[in-house]
Write a structure and sequence with these properties.
Layout: H1 2-9, E1 16-17, E2 32-33, H2 41-47, H3 52-61, H4 66-143, H5 147-174, E3 190-193, E4 198-206, E5 211-216, E6 219-223, E7 229-230, E8 244-247, E9 250-253, E10 263-265, H6 271-287, E11 292-296, H7 303-314, E12 318-323, E13 333-338
Parallel strand pairs: 10-11
Antiparallel strand pairs: 1-2, 3-4, 3-7, 4-5, 5-6, 8-9, 11-13, 12-13
Helix pairs in contact: 6-7
C-alpha cells in the first residue's frame, strides 16, 4: 500500500496492475496503467484451502488500512465491470436504435414515394374522367335541338291535340244521347256529380249541344247526362242496365261512349277537397280507358296547382303531366297522361 501511495505521488512513477481470471486464477496479461491493483495473495490462499487461522494471522500482521484498501479496490473493480457491461449494452442499444432509424427512414421514403405515385395516378384518372365528361357535354350540346326545332315540335304536338279534341267533338255528335236522357233533367232539379263528390242545381239544359249546365258551389260547369244523378228518389225511365252506370244507389244515363268528362273543374275548392276529387276522377277516367284528362285548377297563388302536381307525382296511374299551352289555359290547366 505504501508503494502504491508513493507511485501515485512521485512525478516519475506510475501505478500499474493486471488481473487474474476469476475462474482459473490465472493471469490475464492485460496491463492497466495508472490503476493500482489489488493484492490477491490472501484471497488465492483462502481459495486454495489454506488454514483459516493462518490467513487471519496474516491479515492481522498487515499494516493498518491495507486490508480495507484492497476491499475498496475490489468493489471499484466490480463497479467498473458493471459500468463496462452497462456501456456495452448501451452501445448495443444505440446500434439497434440506429438500425431502426435507418429502417424507418427507408420505409418513410418508400411511403412518400408510394403516396406520390398514388396521387399522380389519381390525378391522371381524374383528368381523364373530366376529359370524357367534357367530351360528353360537348356532344350533347351539339345534339341539342335549336329553338326553331323546339317550336316546330310544339306546333306538331298542338296539332295532334287539336285533332284529338276534334275527334272528341265528333264522338259527341256521332253518338248523341237519347232524348230520354234529358227528360228528368230540368232546371232547378238537384243532381249529384259523383266524380266531383258534390251536389249542385241544374241551371240550363241544351239538348242540341248535349250538355247540362250545373251550378256547384257558385261555380257553373257543363256536364253530360251520364255524369249526373238525380238527388231525389225518382229514377230516369227507359234506361237498361247496360246503358247505365251505377253511382251510389241511382243509375245515370251512360251511352256506349265516354262516361266521364275530359275536363275536371277545381276552381274554388280547398286543397284537401280538390285532391279527393282528382283521385276519384282519375279512377273514373281509367275505367273508360281515357289516355289524357285535363285538370282546371286556375292560377291564383299557385298553392292548389303545386299540391295537385305533388299528388300526381306520387299517383301510380299517372304517366306524366304538364301545364297546358297558353291558348288552352296555360298554367291554370294541367294535362295528365294516364297509364
Amino acid at each position: 500500500a505504501l508503494l502504491k501511495s508513493w507511485a501515485e505521488q512521485h512525478p516519475r512513477a506510475r501505478n500499474a496492475s493486471f488481473h487474474l481470471d476469476p475462474k482459473t486464477q490465472r493471469p490475464t496479461y492485460r496491463l492497466r496503467l495508472d490503476v493500482p491493483g489489488v493484492s490477491e495473495a490472501l484471497i488465492i490462499a483462502e481459495q486454495q484451502g489454506l488454514d483459516r487461522e493462518v490467513i487471519e494471522r496474516a491479515q492481522s500482521l498487515l499494516p493498518e488500512g491495507v486490508y480495507d484498501l484492497n476491499r475498496i479496490l475490489l468493489r471499484l473493480e466490480e463497479r467498473e465491470k458493471q459500468l463496462g457491461e452497462a456501456l456495452a449494452q448501451a452501445a448495443e442499444r444505440e446500434r439497434a436504435a440506429a438500425a431502426l432509424r435507418s429502417q424507418l427512414e427507408t420505409e418513410r421514403e418508400e411511403l412518400q414515394t408510394r403516396q406520390r405515385r398514388l396521387k399522380r395516378e389519381f390525378l391522371d384518372e381524374k383528368e381523364a374522367w373530366l376529359r370524357e365528361v367534357r367530351q360528353e357535354i360537348e356532344k350533347r350540346i351539339a345534339h341539342l335541338p335549336s329553338r326553331d326545332e323546339i317550336l316546330e315540335t310544339k306546333r306538331e304536338v298542338q296539332a295532334m291535340q287539336d285533332d284529338v279534341r276534334q275527334e272528341q267533338r265528333t264522338l259527341d255528335r256521332d253518338a248523341p244521347f237519347a232524348p230520354s236522357a234529358f227528360e228528368r233533367l230540368k232546371p232547378g232539379r238537384r243532381v249529384r256529380v259523383e266524380m266531383l263528390h258534390d251536389e249542385g242545381e241544374i241551371v240550363a239544359v241544351d239538348c242540341e249541344r248535349q250538355r247540362v249546365t250545373v251550378a256547384i258551389r257558385s261555380v257553373e260547369v257543363e256536364l253530360t247526362p251520364d255524369q249526373l244523378m238525380l238527388s231525389d228518389d225518382e229514377s230516369t225511365p227507359g234506361l237498361s242496365p247496360k246503358g247505365a252506370l251505377a253511382l251510389g244507389k241511382k243509375p245515370v244515363a251512360l251511352p256506349d261512349g265516354e262516361s266521364v268528362p275530359r275536363d275536371l273543374d277545381l276552381h274554388g275548392l280547398r286543397v284537401e277537397e280538390a285532391l279527393a276529387r282528382v283521385d276519384r276522377y282519375i279512377d273514373l277516367a281509367l275505367r273508360r280507358d281515357l289516355a289524357t284528362v285535363r285538370l282546371r285548377h286556375g292560377r291564383g297563388t299557385g298553392a292548389l296547382r303545386r299540391a295537385i302536381h305533388e299528388f300526381l307525382r306520387q299517383h301510380q296511374s299517372v304517366r306524366s303531366f304538364a301545364l297546358a299551352d297558353e291558348p288552352d289555359g296555360g298554367d291554370g290547366v294541367t294535362i295528365v297522361e294516364l297509364k
